[in-house]
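Lab notebook, bench 4. Still working through the backlog of constructs that have no structural model yet. Next entry is a single chain of 308 residues. Request: give me the structure tokens for it.
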Amino acid sequence: MRFRRRQSHAERAAEEERVAEREDPYNVTQASRIYFLPNLMTAGNLCCGFAAIIFCIKANYEMRAAGVQVATDLTPQAIGYFKWAVWLILGAAAFDTLDGRLARMGGRESLFGAEFDSLADVVSFGLVPALLVFFLILSPTQGYPIFQQMGGFLSFIYLLCAAIRLARFNVITNPLLHRDAKDSSKDFVGLPVPAAAGTVASLVLALLSLAENDRELHRWAVVLPPLLVLIAVLMVSTVRYPSGKKVDMQTSTKLSTFVLAVVIAGVLFLFKEFGLLACTLSYIFYGLIRHLRRPRQPHASPPPTNRV
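Model written out:
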């Protein structure tokens, strides 16, 4: 009987040790664990980004073959390629939302999943929008040759800020990071990369819609580089943007908020490309205006020193 009791204690101790290892995010086994469904969604995100790059390159070849100088001269085939790239960005955003939801719902978050997700986001929400901006918006701008010279630089700035934003997100969400009370907010610090990519994608959709209607787009080229720079700066800023992580099947809301959500859905359905652009721009400027209207806290004076 004594031997059995000692064996039971040993088994209990081993079980407690295994539980502690599972709860420790920096345990090698737990940190590198690959959970099937969340990481499958991340792989879908990466697949959409890769396919979007291919369509961007195909559209660029089509434009060069047709001698396109202005976005209004786009061939129907080039417009179709660009639209496929845009819809794939939006598809990647849907996969990106699902992988986080599935991981949180099942309690299957791991450091591997976070790093894999960020690498996929760099491709889908960093590189693909940069190529779209360069190939469609900044490159074919007849009458503004300086934009062709700075197009590659501005596209790289966007990609650089997206990568920095994702790296900073991984740092500030590290499980072992000591957080202050002011950091307990669930808001995003800086413009989320999917929202930035969605803004670029919706802008491209609006431009393609105008191109199909034979509108002159090069007149709008003056506005586009400052908007791209603003999006890039907001990604690496400390402006806080609302997060939808708390929204689930059990979430209740006010009547006014519900009506506003229905109105937004109606706008998206009726106006499609331009409604999507209006929603993304509204999200960007909502966070910016809220940040500017927030009362500033006075800086604490440094403590006196005894240095001469």
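Notes after review: The two ends are 76 Å apart (CA to CA). The chain has ten helices and two strands. Flag for follow-up if needed.
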